[in-house]
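Why should sequence recovery work at all? Because a backbone constrains its sequence more than one might expect. Tight turns favour small or flexible residues, buried strands favour hydrophobic ones, and helices have their own preferences. The token representation captures these environments compactly. In the example below, the structure is given first.
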């Protein structure tokens, strides 16, 4: 598998991807993400994941952040190109870049969209654990197990 990312409609080497420091996802965690499991080079329940991503965008008042059909096509082509037989695609949508301010900007040129493929590893089973309030299922679980072992 190549180390690539799909960023705002362009497939790039991961090392060349750039997201500006004014992106509200970076500054304020003003965005949403979803993880789409890949089996046999095919996204599992892609339509359901994209509906959830769309609902999540609406929940943070970022409606119509992407076109679901276009995004499904892009993800399918990207997964096929990356030859990802067993893995995940981490999909993120942020409000995009705007001058730093805690108030939502009146308008933004466009949201930032990214899709990062990763091969499935045996230790990825922690993804199915229920994360704590900070999304730290793996880290917290490993730490607690280490403390109990002492």
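From this structural description, the recovered sequence reads:
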């Amino acid at each position: 598998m190549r180390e690539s990312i799909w960023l705002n409609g362009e497939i790039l080497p991961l090392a060349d991807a750039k997201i500006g420091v004014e992106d509200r996802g970076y500054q304020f965690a003003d965005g949403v993400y979803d993880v789409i499991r890949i089996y046999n080079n095919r996204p599992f329940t892609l339509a359901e994941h994209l509906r959830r991503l769309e609902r999540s965008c609406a929940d943070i008042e970022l409606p119509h952040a992407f076109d679901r059909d276009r995004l499904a096509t892009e993800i399918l082509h990207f997964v096929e190109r990356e030859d990802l037989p067993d893995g995940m695609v981490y999909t993120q949508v942020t409000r995009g870049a705007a001058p730093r301010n805690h108030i939502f900007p009146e308008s933004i040129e466009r949201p930032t969209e990214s899709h990062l493929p990763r091969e499935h590893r045996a230790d990825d089973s922690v993804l199915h654990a229920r994360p704590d309030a900070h999304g730290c299922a793996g880290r917290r679980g490993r730490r607690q197990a280490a403390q109990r072992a002492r």
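A few observations help interpret the result. The beta strands are 4-7, 10-13, 31-39, 42-43, 86-94, 112-119.
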